[in-house]
Amino acid sequence: MRHRLLVPTAAAACLVLAIPASAAEPTPGAPGIGDSYYPAYGNGGYDVSHYDLRLKYQPDDDRLEGTATIVASAKQDLSRFNLDFALDVDSVLVGGKKAGFKTTGDHELEVTPAGRLASGKPFTVVVRYHGTPSEVQVGGYTAWLRTPDGGVVAGEPEGSWWWYPSNDHPRDKATFDVSVAVPDGTQAISNGTLQSTTSRLGWTRYNWRSNKPQATYLATLAVGRFDVTTDTTPGGLPVVNAYSKDLGDDAGAARASVERTVEVADWLTELYGPYPFNALGGYVPNVRTGYALETQTRPFYSPRQFARGANVSVVVHELAHQWYGDSVSVKDWRDIWVNEGFARYSEWLWSEKEGEGTGQELADYVYAQYPADDPFWKVKPGDPGADNQFHRAVYDRGALALQALRNEIGDEDFFAVLKQWPSEYRYGNASVADFRRFAEKVSGKPLAELFDTWLYTPAKPAAPAARAAAIGAQKAPAQPRSWKKIQATNTVHQHDHDAHGARHGH
After folding, report:
1. Phi-psi domain of 484 (left: phi exceeds 0; alpha: psi -120 through 50; beta: other)
2. Which runs of E-coded beta strand occur in 308-454?
3. Which SS3 state, helix, strand or coil, does residue 295 take?
4. 103, 422, 440, 505: which could join 390 in a potential S-S bond, CB 3.0 to 4.6 Å?
């Protein structure tokens, strides 16, 4: 039952005057989420829970038309808010009402609703837009890659700006429905499960669903002509792998690698616990890039990854990210080691499993590769800086840090940490400091000095006495058999301008 409280007019006036101005007046949401490396990425004042993207793409002229419906909740009383986006916007509705909008900066869409958005309350935004994504550059690059028969978007730390408006930071994850209409004979590949396809008047619509929280940069779209293989895992998860029909000489090696996805995922489950998502797979489009990316449920692989033959190591790397990077994501982009150090160490563990070099043998070899005055040791994996976010040291020195941790706390506690961590922070975000505290909790050992030495000191750590003696006795560690395979994946972390002008990291 609702009760009305009748207050005399004078008293009411006093009550109104007593309300602080900050509580009475809505304020704009911040134009950035507060990231250390990318202050303008993401936005403040709200959280997104779901993206519904309804798109139409014409490969012939690279024209994309879209309607994005964004379900969000206000975290403060909002007078306006920002979305990260770079294409042309036709209209914006908030709560079904026309909203004002304008573009600011190089990727900000500033939205002013008809009325205030109350803190704690849900609201819905509908953005209609269009553009030619490959021709839209932000800071001199585009994440949209043209292919001979379509287009692909897969980029880190940014990628969404070229195909849907978003709150573009891993701290604000959401579920996704992606529906894409393409000309008959062309396919659209995205994350999660293929819910349905329909055909009408020369167009086929593909409806994909990713039903677990997903960071915006992990959403992907590939349009083109693909050979698609489907299967199910022993546990019943759908598996979808896709290969461009024109991969040429790389086609066989690509299939020989990516078709081992189920095998690799089963092995990773033993290490890291239950697979966290609703689907599995990978795709190899005909792009000229050299990187790979852990796009959620369905990693992206460049054909160049397989130019020298099959490489299961890159599949191990990308699938390890499903636990370390996708399910548990960075709190801040400076925490990139929590993603990349573990993906690289997963390659070392695969090598150990395959009898091609143990984690310690790989660690000894990496350690010996770089003399003390090498710039490699100047990069701090725990806080590498935006320019070095995807530097080799984040990967190789990052993996060395994990081998040092393994040696310090022993295999039993080390593998307990690796398995329990993805469960502890499942579908959330975590920092390097969070991981250190978690490892201390599981092992019962203080680890601040070890983490500082291997992740934050811009100098080559001293080798433990026993290891130094062993290394000295054999002069130089032998190259593990897996070394070249693992090094062949190094292009996955290049973060610069590629042949398409896009900046990417892995």
Report:
1. alpha
2. 329-330, 429-430
3. coil
4. 505
What does the alpha-carbon distance between residue 466 and residue 291 come to, in Å, rounded to a whole number? 38
Cβ–Cβ < 8 Å for 315, 354: no
CA–CA separation, 274 and 267 (whole Å): 11
Cα-atom radius of gyration of the chain, to the nearest Å? 24
Overall average pLDDT of the 431-457 stretch: 98
Look at residue 329 and give its three-state secondary structure: strand
Amino acid code (one letter) for 312: V
Using left for φ > 0, alpha for ψ between -120 and 50, and beta otherwise, residue 247 falls in alpha
How many Å separate Cα 227 from the centre of its chain? 25
Task: Check if the beta carbon of residue 142 is closer than 8 Å to that of residue 200.
Answer: no
Q: What is the largest CA-CA distance in the chain?
A: 92
Q: What is the 3-state secondary structure (H, E, C) of 188-216?
A: EECCCEEEEEEEECCEEEEEEEEEEEECH
User: What span, in angstroms and rounded, lies between the C-alpha atoms of 255 and 107?
Assistant: 37
Residue 249 CB coordination number (10 Å): 9
Rounded to 5 degrees, φ, ψ at 199 are -125, 140
Sign of CA dihedral 464, 465, 467, 473: positive
Lowest mean pLDDT segment, chosen from 19-33, 113-127, 209-223, 326-340:
19-33
The two tokens of residue 502 are 């896009």
- Contacts of residue 484, defined as CB under 8 A and 6 or more positions apart, other chains included, come to none
